[in-house]
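fyi for ur records
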Amino acid sequence: MDFNITSGKVHTAVKTVIYGAEGIGKTTLAAQFPSPLFIDTEGSTKQLDVARLPAPSSWEMLLQELDFVISKRPCGTLVIDTVDWAEQLCIADLCAKNGKSGIEDFGYGKGWEFEKESFGKFLNKLTEVINAGINVTLTAHAALRKFEQPDEMGSYDRWELKLQNSGKCNVAAMVKEWADMVLFANYKTFVVTTQDKKNRAQGGSRVMYTTHHPCW
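which gave:
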């Protein structure tokens, strides 16, 4: 069997994840992407003049909205704001369908395995949006978690996506692996020494980090 060999850059729609501290401006930044259409899961766009679909009241409704975007192609960028609130819709759907009051009620970690499967299908659906020529931007809150290197002494705090992060269901890792770009936004504070030789915090400018760092 013969195959065609191609070379050069392949121009496709882009998968972006923007996460960061509360109020840093994730939604405002996402609104600058080409022709954005928001699926606003938590009401973050109320003060922005943007196009939006109805806020999904269920996991099923969210998936239906993705199908609508794939078939109608009404935008240049689909923004899901935020993906961690979308994850809560996924968990609520699993619990409702199985008559559970919480994800832990499945026992033996089964609930997390079910979530991993459902969320994987959700990411596959987002890839269909990409294949339709539409950029996808996911915003997410950030959580400060204790991180330990297994081959080194000590531990340190690190900013991570505020998504399920466990051995049985690491949604945070799934989202990062899915994305083309993972961007972390935070406030940068500068420490200065005053005349009385005391350290004072100043600044608080917004900074976008584009490369991996031990702290994010």
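The longest helix spans residues 110-131. thats all i got for now
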